[in-house]
Amino acid sequence: MTDSSVTFHGWASTGSVQLQPWSYHPRALGPRDVEIQISHCGICASDIHTIKGEWGPLVQGTCIAGHEIIGTVVARGVDQAEKFAIGDRVGVGAIAESCQTCEYCTRGLDQQCAQRTFSFNDTYKVEQDEHRRGVTYGGFADGVRVPGDFVYKIPDAISSAEAAPLMCAGSTTYAPLAHHGAGPDKRVGIYGIGGLGHMALQWARAFQAKEVVAISTSDDKRDEAKQLGATRFVNSRDKDSMKQASGSMELLLVTSFGPDTDYNELLSLVANNGTCVLLAVPEKDISLSVSSLLGRHINLTAWLLGGRTAIRQMLDFAAKHNVRPWIETMPMSDANAAIKKAMDGFPRYRVVMHTGVVEEP
Description:
The protein is an alpha/beta fold. It folds into two domains: 8-158 and 324-354, Quinone Oxidoreductase, Chain A, domain 1 (Alpha-Beta Complex); 169-302, NAD(P)-binding Rossmann-like Domain (Rossmann fold), CATH 3.40.50.720. The protein has helices spanning 45-51, 103-106, 160-179, 197-206, 222-228, 239-245, 263-267, 290-294, 308-321, 335-343, and strands at residues 8-12, 20-24, 33-42, 69-76, 89-92, 95-97, 117-118, 143-147, 152-153, 187-191, 211-216, 232-235, 249-254, 270-278, 299-302, 327-331, 350-354. The strands form four sheets. Strands 3, 4, 5, 8, 9, 16 and 17 form a seven-stranded mixed beta sheet that branches. A six-stranded parallel beta sheet has the order 12-11-10-13-14-15, sandwiched between helices. Helix 7 links the parallel strand 13 and strand 14 (270-278). Helix 3 crosses helix 4 (197-206) and helix 3 (160-179) crosses helix 9 (308-321). The mean pLDDT is 93. Its cofactor is Zn(2+). Residues 12-353 form the Enoyl reductase (ER) domain.
């Protein structure tokens, strides 16, 4: 059931990376929902993979991507009236809904809920009333309606443009570092200094890790990595540097991959009894020597996004410790140029589109 009195205008894909202007009527505003006038939306690699059809067909053949959404509340259902005021500055991440009652939701891992709903190219699953279900459309638009339990107030200290990448890149890197105890007793390595990695370096520094090691395929980002918090830099194509770094990190986050990424070599960096966390999604299955795990009791794990609890903690932590993404802003009216810039790998380190709405704190 849609609300024909409201029309959102966005940039949509029909299976091509070339976006087209597209408008739609949102589902009716339910008692738990919040309507947001969007001011900013970041561009994430998963947006690009989705709109190109690389992660499967589009749910209804048309997709408005974008899950790093910032804007202001312009309407809310009766159940959200005490939580949100009209004009509140808020954000939305990659998850728009979960059941909130299963074992994962109650542990703060709603991103693992069997009924989770992604913020775009997905369908709502929890509502008992069939008329309340529908397709999700994301933040490459001027507005969005989302269940209020997955809407987050943005601290005044964080600008709207900087807040956008925190909703995905920020939470995706903060959550595993917090979960695995990055801190003064941990030497932390970050492989890949890009949209995720540049955030992970800042979190590790803010957690006061014993050592923060940036690992990249070239020296191009050495100086920037140190500005972001790295205490040491390793060029992964320099065999001597990799050998010196062998077994030196209790915690390693893998935030990117390439066609020639050697995962066994990356595991060699992890100390005995240490943990390697995969965040990036390789295009092909990876190859590993099991003996490298068994012989040194290395834990190999992965992490998907940040749950509601982690996002709230992350926003407060970012405000307190001055953790901010490095961004380049572009108007949403130039969405295709912004997507191309992100695809070509030119930004340092995230592209954030703005709609022209002014709503800074």
